[in-house]
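Posting for a labmate who doesn't have an account.
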Amino acid sequence: MGLLDGKRLLVTGVITDASIAFTIARLAQQEGATVVLTGYGRMSLVERVARKLPTPPPVIELDVADPAQLASLADRTREYVDGLDGVVHAIGFAPPSCLGGGFLDAPWEDVATALQVSAYSLKSLATATLPLFESNGGVGGSIVGLDFDARVAWPAYDWMGVAKAALESTSRYLARELGPKNVRVNLIAAGPIRTMAAKSIPGFHAFEDAWSTRAPLGWDNTDAEPVARSTLALLSDWFPSTTGELLHVDGGFHAMGV
């Protein structure tokens, strides 16, 4: 019996087979879940990557900044599953001006894009999928988002760090709003994983160097499975009373000093 037997999951953010979301989808299928993916932009690329999963899942186009696509998401998802038990938010984007050391110079228009796509989208995705949770007869479900610890300022992370702080706050307010509907909302603060998104961050090597010396459990920045396994645990029935939580999966880095 798998950890997620019978669960129906919507997983966003699969770009390549090196993405954390891909590993989440793969392990979820192995643990018995039915998975539906969303993609944005180069849909043919997402569909090609989806075919690498144990069971190639359907892929739905979703631009989280497009109200029309959000409004139709529940109906389009129902073409493949009759409801949802879990949603994975693995979406983030910031224009180049918002990263790499130009914190004082980034224009509001770019900052607004970073905040909408990387933080407000958690609320957008939650409300768009809520009808699919409500079809579960009151059972509810779990929303899990991927985060990078925003309690401190990171070199070069700039406005994406601010967006992640907004994501963390948004998750807590969603936990309050959706708790009465039996929908849990939690985040995982992952250590640095060498994904396509991470490689686009100027100075990403500084994160990798820091983790190699300070994480007491060690940290492999090419292995997304620890993050994926923790995500599956939060999506499962084993955390029925946990919501509004920020779970660190970073080798213990967050707890260490110099």
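Reply:
Got it, the structure tokens are right above this. The chain has one domain: 8-251.
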